Amino acid sequence: MPSERTEVQVRPGVEEDLEALTALYNHYVRETAITFDTAIFTPEERRPWLLSHPEDGPYRLMVAVDRDTQGILGYATSSPFRAKPAYATSVETTVYVAPDAGRRGIGTLLYKALFEALSGEDLHRAYAGIAQPNEASARLHERFGFRHVGTYREVGRKFGRYWDVAWYEKPL
Fold first, then answer.
1. Planar angle of CA 133, 137, 143, nearest 5 degrees
2. Residue 24 and residue 74 in contact, taking contact as beta carbons nearer than 8 Å
3. Which residues, at least 6 apart from 82, have a Cβ–Cβ distance to it below 8 Å?
4. Is the peptide bond preceding residue 171 cis, with omega within 30 degrees of 0?
């Protein structure tokens, strides 16, 4: 009898993932306030984002794939927190899980791999902004040692309303 549990592989993102990663992100752009982007992207428009996350260094892209189908189940990134040089030892992290892959531990696998990959880097803090409400994301971040440090009220407008963003911080 085949297992109902999907075997998941987590690996660095590569150029061949661009189309699937763009489609996944566009779902969140179109359907949710999880991202404050408001217009969908073409894969070509997302290419600079993908290329800004090499296989080494502080800015990573980890991808979860189904071992059987090689379909993208989600991804996690670490990106520059702010552009000014004094922020260089801080990163902003994020996780996106495919809509049909939720509640299967994919986010946990992705963050585990991401933080393992970052462990040898010259980083001091990780930050995550979570558009509210998003209880699942808050729980995931808290499991990884993030703590809530403040909330920006009505900081973004999407779908004709304003959204709060809760900020979380984790020592690295």
1. 135
2. yes
3. 90
4. no
Q: pLDDT tens digits, the chain, 172 residues: what are they?
A: 344 566 999 999 999 999 999 999 999 999 999 999 999 999 999 999 999 999 999 999 999 999 989 899 999 999 999 999 999 999 999 999 999 988 889 999 999 999 999 999 999 999 999 999 999 999 999 999 999 999 999 999 999 999 999 999 999 9
- Nearest 5°: the CA angle 140, 86, 96 is 25
* CA dihedral for 106, 111, 113, 114, sign (positive or negative): positive
Q: What does DSSP assign to residue 149?
A: E
**Range 15-46 burial, b when 16+ CB lie within 10 A, else e:** eebbebbbebbbbebeeebbbeeeeebeeeeb
Strands (E), 7-66: 8-12, 61-66
- Contact present, 13 and 65 (Cβ < 8 Å): no
Task: State the alpha helices, DSSP H only, in 105-162.
Answer: 106-118, 135-143
State how beta strands 125-131 and 8-12 pair.
unpaired
